[in-house]
Amino acid sequence: SEVKKIAVIAGDGIGPEVVAEAERVLKRTEEVFGYTFETNHALFGGIAIDETGTPLPKETLEVCQSADAVLLGAVGGPKWDNNSKELRPETGLLGIRKALGLFSNLRPAVVFDCLKDASTLKPEVLEGTDLMVVRELTGGIYFGEKFRREGEHGEEAVDTCVYNVAEVERIVRQAFEIAQKRRKKLASVDKANVLETSRLWREVVNRVAPEYPDVEVEHVLVDNCAMQLLRRPSSFDVIVTENMFGDILSDEAAMLTGSIGMLASASMGEGSFGLYEPVHGSAPDIAGQGLANPIATILSVALMFRLTFGYSDAADAIERAVAQVLDAGHRTSDIAVDKSTAISTSEMGDLIVAAI
Amino acid sequence: SEVKKIAVIAGDGIGPEVVAEAERVLKRTEEVFGYTFETNHALFGGIAIDETGTPLPKETLEVCQSADAVLLGAVGGPKWDNNSKELRPETGLLGIRKALGLFSNLRPAVVFDCLKDASTLKPEVLEGTDLMVVRELTGGIYFGEKFRREGEHGEEAVDTCVYNVAEVERIVRQAFEIAQKRRKKLASVDKANVLETSRLWREVVNRVAPEYPDVEVEHVLVDNCAMQLLRRPSSFDVIVTENMFGDILSDEAAMLTGSIGMLASASMGEGSFGLYEPVHGSAPDIAGQGLANPIATILSVALMFRLTFGYSDAADAIERAVAQVLDAGHRTSDIAVDKSTAISTSEMGDLIVAAI
Ligand SMILES: CC(C)[C@H](C(=O)O)[C@@H](O)C(=O)O
Ligand SMILES: CC(C)[C@H](C(=O)O)[C@@H](O)C(=O)O
């Protein structure tokens, strides 16, 4: 089969460790399914700041642009937290999203059986929770003009939130299509009782909704959504929302599953191009000790296979392998009830690779 | 003693019912403690739209402006949801906040013993949760310029988020002072890794923090805060944040206590002037049936006594009376485990009045 090019960005903290295991999974699927991958490694985030003086070097962008998909570990850490804006890992993250046109962030929030008890929510409330947050990723207050100025009452700071119809329509249509393949329920989240961008958002949703008659749509105000996620998480299927609200709600949704350390995410551009990464962060406190859980990154590979390459056989195999290893009781220390029985990052990788 | 003037705004839905019980509590404290209140009723919200054509009539504003404090029931309902912006109850709410200079919204989120089980969080996670969200209420993206325009890519909508140093400093200092009277922990919530207004916010917090050396400050990013509220709610004491983040986080915090139907809130202006209201909404579905729970509104009176009038004896008495009635097992239907034993709005009022 055709060679697929994957840009691999290990990043900071536990990034390199978890990405290493995901790459072994890639190799294994080449053997088992006959796919061929060309991986190209690139520097990004804190390590790129240290080695090249910028969080998003031009070569990294080029490696990504010439790839079919990007696999990202994690970026950031206290070492760079007090840097000036241009020298911060987050600036690289925002830059890569914009440069690669990754307008849509897909954040599935599901409950892993073996982690049900890790949630702070009652099991009966959590039961059946399986939702997907579709977050707009290249617009809104993240990318609008921002500046300081001397105002009537002294120094002031300004952020601008802008959305045009096309930007909203693109993400909303994607969310409808995703809902069509799931339980056919879409919650569009906005603050239309206060914000003009939200009123535009709601107009677009209402205009395109009739083209997806099989999907049931509800408009939910963002403050109410933050509450309903807590009260009735299992009643949500797909949630679509703008960048800032999506940042907050997708983290809330991920946390309430109790499975945040196991969740994968995709940031999609036009066509099938996507950047895949675990939802968890770079966890600098446990970096380099073989303690990290590689499952979220391995599941990010499965998501890549499904969404970018259409390799659902291999995606299924990876997901089944993960389930099988967990069912057999193997745990890294983050999810082990008895820490003394925990296995290392690479042992978990070994087991999953063997199970594929 | 001096006559205190209270503007009473019953509002929509269950507003009139719960406010009626709160007024009986006011009367009772006059008898018991010798205080004297002059109450003036005013139209606001949906009912004001219906009767006067505007959600915030000029006379209502005058009644409020000449009062020492405002007691508000609840506003809004589906009847007015599709009105144009100027004819919506929310527009009245934003208008009254701005006109009265209510820059600070205090939202205590506590767990009522009898409602512990109503939370979707596990009791052991909830244990000891007692936090206060201090939300900036007259700035940020709520009040910045908002408009539509023809952009490069067609129609677009714009919202502007603006904060000046004085606005931030005012609310931040208030939060520090509140923290000093509580457990001396302040979490300042922002999105300083993305927003310029958040960077200004953080600078102000860092500049004034040394003046409150007894208060331990942490900066928490808003997405992380949405998660930590779920993971370790009891570790928060005071949370201070800007308007939009405060809207979302205060609702999340209230909901996780399981006691949202019982929580009071205060919106404070300069000096001791304040508007007091229950956190819950107008619940149009149960309006007029004597089913509403008046406790949150009655506790709003206690908050008014404490924060505006300094009548802590009467505030204590009200809070004790509420606790006593609940301890004796009396419940309105919203909080009754066995609905058949539920008492009515006015029966709950009777019991609390009698217990003062
Ligand atoms: C690091 C930060 C800029 C980023 C965001 O806010 O988008 C992160 O929170 C995320 O959700 O990917
Ligand atoms: C009704 C709405 C405008 C209001 C707000 O967003 O401030 C409400 O949600 C609140 O929190 O008081």
TrEMBL record, chains A, B:
Residues reported in the UniProt entry to bind substrate: 97, 107, 135, 223
The subcellular localization recorded is: Cytoplasm
Query: Where is Mg(2+) bound in this sequence?
Result: 223, 247, 251
Q: According to the UniProt entry, what is the EC number of this protein?
A: 1.1.1.85
Q: What remark does the entry make about the cofactor?
A: Binds 1 Mg(2+) or Mn(2+) ion per subunit.
Residues that hold NAD(+) according to the record = 77-90, 281-293
**Record GO terms (molecular function):** 3-isopropylmalate dehydrogenase activity
**Out of the domains of life, which is the source?**
Bacteria
Catalytic reaction annotation: (2R,3S)-3-isopropylmalate + NAD(+) = 4-methyl-2-oxopentanoate + CO2 + NADH
Outline the subunit composition.
Homodimer.
Family, according to the entry, reads as follows:
Belongs to the isocitrate and isopropylmalate dehydrogenases family. LeuB type 1 subfamily.
User: What name is this protein filed under?
Assistant: 3-isopropylmalate dehydrogenase
Please name the source species: Paenibacillus shunpengii
Quote the gene name from the UniProt entry. Answer: leuB
